[in-house]
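Example 3.2
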Amino acid sequence: MFRIAIGRAEGIACFGGTVQAFLASLAPLIAFPLVGAGFGLFTEGPRRALTDLAMTLCAVLTPAVLSFEIARRWNRREAWLRYATAFNWCEWILPVLAVFAMLPMSIAVGAGASQGIVAAGFVLFLGFYALWLHWFLARNALSLSGLRAVLLVLLVNAGTAAAVLIPGLLAPDRG
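Structure, written as tokens:
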């Protein structure tokens, strides 16, 4: 993951391209929300806990579904399992990066920078890095042109956002 995090494409070869490797990459992305939902059943109530779990599962699984379909249409199906496996494991780069970014943020705020501006910069930094990371993985793991990799990232992220957000917007508030 470190190699990929710093833009070294050979890191992709470290991930398996099998169904078992893909399922192993999904396990922690699903296990943590399941545990959280278990705790949420007692603290937030079953309805809220299960709704949050469903939204998280959509957020975790939708990128795989959408990227598979795009890879299939672009004749990259054989490379998709390694891509999806690397994608799932590399999602862990983002929280680690966020932790490391907190120190300079704290220093900046302590030196008098506006907390709101620093927080906005932090969110923008993580967001752009996440988009770059997804583009890098698509470009190198699926052997896509830069433009196709951009298109895949846009479609997958927009589709994931829609799958997670639209049901909540359409559901009546039963508060």
